[in-house]
Amino acid sequence: MADRRAQLVGRVRGLLSEALGSARGRLTAARAELETGQDRLTRVRRAAATVPQRVGAERDRRLAEIDSRYSTRIAELVRRAAAAAEREAPGAASADWSRWAPTPTGRADTPGAVRVGTVRIPGAEPVPALVPLLDAGHVHLTGEHRAACDAVVSALLLRSIGRTDPGTVRLIGYDPEHLGGGLAGFAPLGTAGLLTFVGPGGLARLLDDLVEQIRRINETVLAGEHSSLRELAAATGRRPEPWRVAVLLGGDELSRHERGQLDRVVRTGAACGVHLVVRGIPLPDDPTVQRVLVARGDVRIGGPTGLPVRLDPPPPATLVTETCRQVASTVNAGPAPTPFTELLPPPGEMWQEDSSTALVAPIGEGPSGRPVLLTLGDYPPHALIGGPSGTGKTNLIFAWIGALASRYSPAELEFYLLDFKEGVSFARFAQGRRDPSWLPHMRLVGINVNTDREFGLALLRFLAEELRRRADAAKQHEVTKLAELRAVDPKGHWPRIVAVVDEFQMLLAGRDVVAREAADLLEDLARRGRSQGIHLVLASQDVRGIEALWGRPALVAQFTLRIALPKALRILAERNDAAQSLPRHHAVINAESGMVEGNEIARIPSASEWETWSELQHRLWRMRPPDAAPARLFDGDAIPRLADAPDFRALAPARQPGGPRGPVALLGEIIDVQARSAALRLPRAPGRNLAVLGTRVDEACAVLDAVGRSLARQHEPGSARFSIACLDPDADHAARSLYEDLADDAAWYDEETVPELVAETAEALAGPGTPTTPHYLLLYAVDAAAGRLGARVGRRTGLEHLRQILHDGPERRTHVLAWWRGVARMRNDLGGPASRTDQIGAWVALDVQGGELGSSLYPGTGGPDWYPRPWRGLFFDRAVHRTGQTIIPYGLPR
Ligand SMILES: Nc1ncnc2c1ncn2[C@@H]1O[C@H](COP(=O)(O)OP(=O)(O)OP(=O)(O)O)[C@@H](O)[C@H]1O
């Protein structure tokens, strides 16, 4: 048992030691493992301790790299943004106030956005912060920082004004709390009507007005052709409407109506140049509304989440007022003239129009930017132009003539022009000494005709004759109107005729025969000219011009086209005072006899300056047809020359013995359209003598000189006898010059020898037969010889001889062409105050009153309507005249 026990114990011991051994083994292994683990841990820990260092360095490296890339990118973006801003807002739109000055864009360009400050980008160069306004939209300011808001408003407005032409931005202020205080610096604009304030309570009216402007612009200016003024300007180069900027600075709650109108303006204003700058009134959301939040320390463009901005300082007060003063004074000085070329077709398209039915040409630009047209045709047929001196009548006439002459060729249109006031501006239409060009359409230019109303009459007579010729032709072709006549007679020369008479009232002044005949002719031309293409354009600076017509309602009624320059009176209809408020260089054009409904306002370009006009005239002159002749220039201040007179040049010696059968003595130029000479026929008939009457030495000598030279031109040398007697030393020079030029055909007599001349001539006449050689006695101041001639020579006195020559001479080719220094003196020489004067068949009166020429010298009683004036004479030939004819003596040869 013990053994068993021992055995068991042994076994147990064995098992135990075995277990112990294995436990010890396992412990050792575990210890070794632990050591290894701890070792690894130490190593791992060591290694782990070095990791953050490495990672941080890498991270920093990466971050630095990103930073550098980011700053370069930002710098690049900032640079680009700044360059874009510079392009978008150059000059006055963004310049610092210290060097700010207006830099308007062109008429057709849009002004672009303007700067109010800089965008805040930490660490970067500042980028201009721009706000678009004109042609873009509206600006809505919110925030309590009033001074900063005011600075933004001032900057916006001043920069906008500086980017546009003076006068093209109109401000309307509504500032019920501060009564305009917010816009005080802009006050000088008010003097030019560019700033108006609407008082408290006026907001509804202001908004109504803006809505109405938008409606009008959409309807009449954009007229469905353009979607905005900006687009119209880009397409046409014209900007017919100003920008209207309403600055609304607070106020009460809006009424429903006001809100509705405000919404309309917001939605539709920008396209029509109507803009809002608003603070203190909510604006609806719209893409055109730019929000600017102005809180203390935080300014943002584009609302609370928009770009942070550092505002610029406000513009200095003096800069604002000075700029506004400048703008106002430019505007008050009137608009810069539009170029004359706007009235003309392109150079390659001149003379393309057909005048069969009417003459149509632009005269200027209307408020909507469209050309305002003037028409002359069946309706309206004639025009009246009125305007006080200096308002641009002459200029308007130039502009109209230019616009017509560039469209219609001389075959389509002819001009006749008469200027009753002093001045030579119209002379340039005719050929001049300085400028050889002339306007090919111009047939006649009469200048300085102020005292020569006869010239006006002559023009009217000429036109009346042309009217008759046209009416006859029309009748022959069985048509009634010019258009029809031209259609049936395409080869005929039937241009439309435009006759312009400036200061026409001179023609109708007075109650004499000239005025009466002129008014009758005018009436006839006005009535019947319309259908025959003869158009009258009458201009007057003086209300009397119109008064002169007013007495003839039938005449006035034909002048349905009325053109009134600023401050013109009575040109338009009675209650139409549109001309009173016209700006400079504008005109009211009215083709409805002046009725208010017909008013059209046109801005007239400057056309009358020498360079402007002559460029066109030279172009048209170079285009003239080969047979074109210059216009006849009648200058009332000029003295015509006999050598230039067509009638004188046409004279030639007659081939038959005794010279021409009825030689003509030329006396001077007739005041008429064709520059003809007044001619006295000297056939062999009783009374064919001439008396020149008056004390004016030069004029009397000039008449006798022309008489002598023109007669001499009709005779071969040696075939006529000229006896020249000069009895006034003052006439000696002129008489001698004629004597010398007539050479061998002339004999000289003086006070001593004149009795012999008359005695010898009278004796020759007493003999039988008619001498073959004509004898012309040119007696200068013959009355001075009355004493000498009163003495007897043989059986009779010299005066008796003279009377006999006057009486019997003409039938026998002996003519007395004598100057008496008064009518009474002549009568004395003829036999006394009651003596007959029928041997004086013709006379030229110089400084002799009409009344003195009555009884037996002139038909009827009381003598002719003749008021003496320098270098003019009244010629009357009882064989051919019913009334006297005014002549201009030819100048004496030097
Ligand atoms: N549309 C215009 N644009 C620019 N200048 C103009 C215009 N119209 C007139 N002027 C200028 O104004 C001045 C007066 O014009 P103009 O001689 O035509 O006036 P007027 O009415 O004919 O005067 P008057 O009857 O005294 O001759 C001129 O110097 C002319 O150049």
Q: What descriptive keywords fit this protein?
A:
Rossmann fold, 10-stranded mixed beta sheet, alpha/beta, 33 strands, binds adenosine-5'-triphosphate, 21 helices, rod-shaped, 3 domains, 894 residues
Molecular structure report:
With 894 residues, the protein is α/β, with parallel strands linked by helices. 36% of the residues lie in helices and 20% in strands. It has three domains: 97-324, P-loop containing nucleotide triphosphate hydrolases (Rossmann fold, 3-Layer(aba) Sandwich), CATH 3.40.50.300; 381-557 and 606-635, P-loop containing nucleotide triphosphate hydrolases (Rossmann fold, 3-Layer(aba) Sandwich); 642-888, Rossmann fold, CATH 3.40.50.300. The relative contact order is 0.06. The chain starts with a helix and ends in a 6-residue tail after the last strand. It has a ten-stranded mixed β-sheet with strand order 2-1-10-9-8-3-7-6-4-5. The chain is rod-shaped, with a radius of gyration of 50 Å. The longest helix is centred in the first third of the chain and has 87 residues, at 2-88. It contains 21 helices and 33 strands. Helix 8 packs parallel to helix 11 (513-532). The site of adenosine-5'-triphosphate has 16 residues, from helix 7. ATP binds at residues 387-394. This is FtsK/SpoIIIE family protein.
In short:
This protein has 894 residues and is α/β, with parallel strands linked by helices. Helices cover 36% and strands 20% of the residues.
